[in-house]
Amino acid sequence: MNIVVIGGGASGIACAIKTKLNNPDCSVTVLEHLDEPCKKIFATGNGRCNITNKYAPGFETTKNFFESIGLVLRESEDGRMYPYSNQASSVVETLVSNCRKLNINIVTSCTVKSAEKTAETFSVFTDKGVFSGDVLVLATGGKAQSALGSDGSGYSLAQTFGHKISALSPALVQLKSPNKNCRALKGIRAKCLVKLVIGDEIAKEEFGEVLFTDYGLSGIVVMNLSHLVCDEKIKNDNQRYSAVIDFVPEMTEEELLSHYKKFGNFEGILPLKLCTVLSRQAEGNEEKMAKYIKNWRLIISGTKGYEYAQITKGGIEKDELDESFQSKLCDNLYIIGELTDNQFPCGGFNLDFAWSSGVKAANKIAEQRE
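^ that's the sequence the OP posted. Answer follows.
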């Protein structure tokens, strides 16, 4: 049995390794268009690689996979799981060394031009020749951070086999705002409640850390809300977005005013620079300032785009794949990882899905060959 995997990132390499572990006699070839596999993994978790989260749906699958190839995990805050070394390089080295040990053929700097299925055989046409397989796995990633391998090329390959692509947009990405106060607050971090407002309706709210930047807003809470912002709709004047920030959700306006009357400022609650900006906007009026602290609105002019996004929202529609990510439209075609329409919040959930979807596909491949 020959298996061809297009994409040497997290999902593709996990699928390749697990397929070979399940079927030692099969041939597995991974086609990677960069000069080495797993490049994107180096950039995850600020270089530490937040592999998974103990609250992720695929946690047990991911954990068992890494234990089977010799990588020890350790738990950090909020259920985040990292390699015991706290180095993303340990993850990459473990994956690549297992590929070598299992004789998985990784073809790098390989550009896939097209793919087709004739009878029971898949043919993948590349600038390094034609690769044939009984099983084809699409694991190309989405459009986020093309320099690290995700250039969106997998969508057209999936469409070749009849699959539909839901609307695509950057996700887990910073948000831009034209408000000059963001620049004035550059570098300030605040734990707050952020409501994303679309038109006049609150689309979603989340509590967490916001980081002010010269272009707008960053931080985990902002990243988690960003999938709701569509650059295309802003560009076409179809949608207005704003972020409404409550800097002190634990206190009411009345409690804030009581604090001000007692101490003459809000500096015991909020950073001095933030107090200065809010006071200037409120023209020194403490009642107005209390309202701004509880209800500070910033216009959102868009996202920072795919080059800064961690993931892509949208992809191959879920109802076109079975629970093991085999295509319902084409037998022995599997579509895994970020290429599918599955998105999760920060904290290791998206990388967990990459690993676990690859492993589930590999297990189904083994089942079908028994």
